[in-house]
Structures are given as structure tokens and as C-alpha cells.
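Weekly structure sync, notes
Attendees: PL, DS, HV (note-taker this week)

Item 1: DnaJ heat shock protein family (Hsp40) member C25
DS walked through the input record. Source organism listed as Canis lupus dingo. Sequence as pasted into the shared doc:
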Amino acid sequence: MLDHPEEYYSHYYHYYSRRLAPKVDVRIVILVSVCAISVFQFFSWWNSYDKAISYLATVPKYRIQAMEIAKQQGLLRKAKEKGRNKKSKEEIRDEEENIIKNIIKSKIDIKGGYQKPQICDLLLFQILLAPFHLCSYIVWYCRWIYNFNIKGKEYGEEERLYIIRKSMKMSKSQFDSLEDHQKETFLKRELWIKENYEVYKQEQEEELKKKLANDPRWKRYRRWMKNEGPGRLTFVDD
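Item 1 (cont.): predicted structure, written out as C-alpha cells:
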């Protein structure tokens, strides 16, 4: 210390930082963090699912169908009879709303980002099932190479839709959220063939340009960009 007094405080810091450092297993910290993220995911996805159901309950098409099913099953009549003398009008209305939402949940399969939460989609289960998914992917890829690249078999409907999804650069949830008639159109136009997809892509780009050209908000934006532009500076003489 006499020869190097400037290192005194650094040694002092290193000694107590190791002496007083919390002795917590890193594996426990990682496990708790993964569990916390998984719980947050589950409640976040469930909240999105409830919002989607609430929105569908306001759409006349689905609400009318749900009310007809509830009337056929006698659910609305039972709710009114039970709450005729005991519940207020608001409570009866809330109960009827819950009945309609439950029917929509049971009859409509929501896909994409607002689908019903699945336990296997959580981060914790994804990590646990990662070896299984990896082995499944390797087996699937080997079968693909053997059946279509080596033996030259014709693509089935599932394989064609997979190639189309990859060409469109869409995730599985995004592609699943598309309507069935859209997927049928993709198959009819044989979009799994690269040349056909390029033609379809060009048509979509042209259609988008036409829509933007006729959109008044886009016209105002282009006019503003032409006349003013972003970050344009003007100087006013006093």
C-alpha cells in the first residue's frame, strides 16, 4: 500500500463487492424471469382476446346471429325470468351481454394476434418444447427434400399454402387470419409458382397505387410534400 497508495480504494472496493455480493443462483434468476414473462404474456394475450370478443359483440352481423342462437336455446328468456324480481335492468343487460359474448366465443374461431391464448405458446413452454420442435423441424425438412426435391412429387394443398406464405413473408398467425376465400384465390392463381406470384405482386402494387392516387388524404400529403416538404426553412425579412 505504501508503494501504490493510489490503488488502495480500488482494492477496498473489490474486497467488499465480493464479500457483500448477494449469493443467488443465476439459474433461479433466469427461471423466475422466464416465469414472470410468461405470466405477463398470458394476461396480455387474454386481454387482447377479450377486446376482440367485445368488438365482435358490437358488429351487427355477429351480434344478430348470437342473439338468434340465444333465443333458440332460451338463454335470453331464462336470464330475464331469473332477474325479473331480483335484478335491476342494468344487471339483466350485463347478463345478456355476457351470454352473447359466450356464444360468440364458442361459435367463432378467432385467428391471428387476437386468438384465444394457448398455454403451449408461452415463453416457458416454448423453451421446454424447443428440443421437440427442433427435431420435428429437422424431420419435416428431410421429408420435404426427399419427397419434392429428390422424388419430384407434386405439392399438396398444405405445401402450396406454405410456399405462398413464405413468398408473402407472412408469419403463420398472420396467414391464418386471412379469410378462406383469399386462400382459395391464392390456390386458383397458383401463387406457389414464382412467376405467378411475381405477376400477382405487381398487380397488388398497381392496385395500391391507384387507391392512394384516389385517396384525398394521400393527395393532400403529396401536395404538402411538393410545396412545403419536411424540414423546409423559410426566412422572413423584418
